[in-house]
Amino acid sequence: MAPVELQKQEGLRPSQVASATVKVWDPVVRLFHWTVVTACILNLFVFDEGKYWHRLTGYVVATAVVVRIIWGFVGTRHARFGDFLPTPGKVRAQIFGMINGSEQRYIGHNPLASIMMLGLMVLLAMTAVSGWMTTLDAFWGDKWLEEMHGVIANSIMVLAFIHAAAALIESWRHRENLVWSMVTGRKRA
Fold first, then answer.
1. Can you tell me where the transmembrane regions are (predicted)?
2. 2: three-class secondary structure by DSSP
3. Which pTM was predicted?
4. Are 9 and 1 a contacting pair, CB within 8 Å?
5. Where are the domains of the chain?
6. Coil, strand or helix at 79
7. Whole-number Å distance between alpha carbons of 60 and 52
8. Which DSSP helix (H) or strand (E) runs through 63?
9. CA-CA distance, 59 to 175, in Å (whole number)?
10. Rg (CA), the chain
11. CA pseudo-torsion sign 142, 42, 152, 61
């Protein structure tokens, strides 16, 4: 929303517009995000592989992914996939905008963040399914499946670090705390 439009809509003085925030991330999106962050940290660094708590945490992640996919179709504006579907043109425009300093600021996910978010969701689903498959009699003790599960989980860790670094860099570049916005649900207008 443009500052002038925000000023008119909210009845704010010009000095108030600069510090105004808007709701972006609803509670479902934020709960999904922090559930996945917590679960990945626990399963990668705390819980023993294949044991009860590791499996339970995997089922929590699987449930969170299913809820998030549903919410991507019926949720609030910035939660919907249609709001941030990354097209090749949008991705190109963001990359070239970053290079030449004319990058568009997005209230919701930008195109590159959209790719990261969708990629992480796919990997989370693949990890949950491959982990569940290791508990089936048909795959019991199959090393290839366990190795694939581990490779996918490690891929999530790598992408999560890239995602976190990008959030910090973008926070600095755009002068707004993107991590805090995922806690409060609000971003600078």
1. 28-46, 52-71, 112-132, 152-172
2. coil
3. 0.85
4. yes
5. 24-184
6. helix
7. 12
8. helix 52-74
9. 37
10. 19
11. positive
